């Protein structure tokens, strides 16, 4: 068995994703089954983790698809038309719209027909390869034919594990975190620390075992990922798991994403390095942006009536 499902479902973040399944299916399923009624805001909400409660990163490239809503509606109409083979409609939909690849189209399929289609994206594919369940493809297969084969594997895995396809997709995310860390199940705090380090460590993008270096906002990351994780643990211990600026208690799981920990550079023009990092609440990081740390703290004190 690929996963200890009971153990995985005991973790707060996985429980949260699974608990939101019916809410998300009820909201987006009817829209995608009748895509001619799809509005731009509907689609933007689907792309947002705040509303889909499952997939991050869809917004970065997916917003381009809304530049031509007529083509987007038509592409989704083709994609969800069960009278045609999935391989054919998958290829057709891909060709009809910019900003919607397999990582976007397959969640749409899952939300439309949650018992028939699984998700193929940058999380599930590497984990399937790592777990030894990535299928072989005959030479010359189209992207649609590849998805049809991948989906047959996902359907069988869900059946074997006795989980639905929504939950299976959440398990791939957990598998990724486990594999890239200690190999043991992580608590919500460990996962939050790893996520902060991963965001700062965008200079190291792993693709099938290869690493590509790049900078983050034109700033250097001057710590190894391991050293950064250790330093983040130290910073949280120093503040007692509180925001370094506001003092509010950070939440490592739960529904209020604005209270999740977020890595902030004290001097926003400086580097990611020792002495220039602090862990704050996500909303504080959003408010602060490029404001000087001293000035932001001064303004916050005024709001609180402390100055």
Task: Describe the protein in words.
The protein is mainly α and about 300 residues long. It has helices spanning about 5-10, 10-20, 20-35, 40-45, 50, 60, 70-80, 85-95, 100-110, 125-130, 145-160, 165-180, 190-200, 225-240, 280-290, 295-305, and strands spanning about 205, 210, 260-265, 275-280. The chain has two domains: about 5-180, no CATH class; about 190-305, Herpes Virus-1 (2-Layer Sandwich), CATH 3.30.40. It is about 55% helix and about 5% strand. The termini are far apart. The model is unreliable at about 205-215 (pLDDT under 50).
**Terminal Cα separation, in Å?**
59 Å
- Structural class assignment: mainly alpha
How many domains, as an integer?
2
Number of helices: 16
Largest sheet: 2 strands, antiparallel
C-alpha-based Rg, rounded: 21 Å
The SSE order reads: HHHHHHHHHHHHHEEHEEHH
Strand order of the largest sheet: 1-2
Helix content: 40-55%
Low-confidence stretches: 203-217
Shape: globular
Number of beta strands = 4
Strand content: 5-15%
Average pLDDT number: 87
In short:
The chain has 307 residues and is mainly alpha-helical.
Topology overview:
Elements: H1 5-9, H2 12-19, H3 21-33, H4 40-47, H5 49-52, H6 58-62, H7 69-79, H8 86-96, H9 102-112, H10 124-131, H11 143-161, H12 165-179, H13 188-200, E1 205-207, E2 210-212, H14 225-239, E3 261-265, E4 277-281, H15 282-288, H16 293-303
Antiparallel strand pairs: 1-2, 3-4
Helix pairs in contact: 3-9, 7-8, 8-11, 10-12, 13-14
